[in-house]
Amino acid sequence: MQMFHNSTSTVLIAVLKRDLVIGLRHRSELFNPLVFFFIVVTMFVLALGPYETTLRQVAPAVIWVAALLASTLSLDMMFHSDLDDGSLEQFLLSPHPLIIIVVAKILAHWLLTAAPLIVAALFLGLMVYLPQTAIMPLLLTLLLGTPVLSLVGAVLAALTVGLRGSGILLTLLILPLYIPVLIFSVATVDNAAKGLAITGELYFLGAILVLAATLAPLATTSSLRIRLG
Amino acid sequence: MSSLQSFLHMGGYAFYVWSAYGLSFIVLILNVVLPLKREQQFFRALIKRKERVSKNK
Amino acid sequence: MFEYFYKYGSPRHFYDLSKMFVPWLGGICLILLIAGLTGGLVLAPPDYQQGEGFRIIYVHVPSAWMSLFIYMVMATAGATGLIWKVKVADALARASAPLGASFTFLALVTGSLWGKPMWGTWWVWDARLTSELILLFLYLGYMALQTAIDDRRTAARAGAILALVGVVNIPIIHYSVEWWHTLHQGPTITKLDTPSIHISMLVPLLIMALAFMFYYAAVVLLRARYEILENERNSAWVCELIEQRRG
After folding, report:
1. Is residue C62 within 8 Å of C39, Cβ to Cβ?
2. What total number of domains does chain B contain?
3. Which residue of C has its CA nearest to B37?
4. Based on the number of CB atoms within 10 Å of its own CB, is B34 exposed (0-12), middle (13-18) or buried (19 or more)?
5. A touches which chains (3+ CB pairs under 8 A)?
6. Res. C200 pLDDT band, cuts 50 70 90
7. Is B7 within the bounds of a domain?
8. What are the extents of the domains in chain C?
9. How large is the ipTM?
10. Is residue B19 part of a domain?
11. Which residue of C has its CA nearest to A165?
12. Which domain holds residue B33?
């Protein structure tokens, strides 16, 4: 690794760049959650039947549950490869504050996983007959919700990094914690589909995001220190 | 005796009430018995190991 | 004063204390249980709406209260172990989890058994039961994490972080689920509301709740004792204990 300057933003940008480059190099790792997203929605449609009336009613719920599951799949990669190649220990030993590195990694994860997910969600929304009025709100809830997934997911990925069965363990631990985001996001999109107001729900999602952004990086650094200390 | 019967009958809800209490009782007992057993097994295993070690000396 | 806590924070003394206190706490619990059950099953009059069926609340509500209380204790003990490195706190946290899960499970099942005769279905997704279900997931996840990590000290610290994350989430989850429930509800009242409670019904409930508290106190000391033994299995005092048992 090249020598970093001591500036906080330099470290952040350097780690961000590194993670983005590595992520884009292993493009298949990014594709799989996306394909999973499509498959899960398809399964729901196959189970529920092709009729527009039914699908339109469940569209917000189906899209969000599928997005959530797909997102959870991609969490393992946050620290896994770093643990394997020894970079994680280097991060802990480095003179730069671990929290900056963690923030950079979370940001990278979000950029790599959420962006394709959001684009896919818009397509899938059309496929399950999501009403026009709900499409922008869906985008908004995903923009507010996916960072929360990356943030809270980082804490749990750090707690479970390298454990036997960490993949499924991570999923089991994290899904209950995502429930508030799920409830409020689906409610937002549902309301939008019916033409009702959505500001209250969006504010709540925003509040959750702020809380997560404040606490998660700290919890993640503690977790990394505990697991690798 | 009929008051005992009517007590057990619980106004027709006997199955639900007694299942609830019965299950609670079982769970509470298990949570006492299982740890006690585990402690016993812990000591038994370590004693066995000590005997083996001292035998081999 | 600090030395007082320091002494009792030590695993060795905790083990001795546990042996001393558990029978007493158990005895008090038993007395309270008898009092509470007599009050609840015999003395309290049948509810005018629900008949004798309402008596399930004497196990359902205390279980639900304990399920939440124990999570708070677990998180606090975990935090204490994390921040001040108190070994006994780690043991108490780990020991509390199965108890909390048991009470959550009981709250769910007794809730279901209460709901079936009253409202016709074995399960109803009302806000409280749904929150309890999620709480069960949180407990099970905590236990799974502790089991997955081999080093017990690391497991305790990781568990503490998870419990703290859970503690922050629990109010949010409760609120979200309640809000979700009112969204999808409609004009009917929340199904598992306790009936408007008369004093003769309330007193046994409080006694039962107290009984469950003493039960928890006794059993957590019992379980924590075992956790301490496992943590300290290579230490001198444990070896001494084994020698005593051999002889």
Report:
1. no
2. 1
3. C226
4. middle
5. C
6. confident
7. no
8. 21-246
9. 0.90
10. no
11. C148
12. 24-57
